[in-house]
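To start, an entry.
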Amino acid sequence: APNPATESTTIIIPMKNENEEYENVEITMYDLMGRPVFQRRMETGAIKYKLNFREVSQLKSGTYILNIKLDNRVITKRLIVAKS
């Protein structure tokens, strides 16, 4: 996914291992003050999620933290949004 992103970003959900998917997948996006600005629980078996910034009306250009919770594991990524 592009970083900085302008209109959307695609979040790739990894597999647990070769033949097993995570059961509980949740994506949460925080602003730098730690406030959640977006949260989505995913269906089991989803491997991609396209986050369209138009879905998140309060989202402004800036830096955000993406937490991707996979069962008991958390992946944290920094995302720069450059809205036009």
User: Anything to note?
Assistant: Residues 24 and 84 are 34 Å apart (CA to CA). DSSP finds no helices and six strands in the chain.
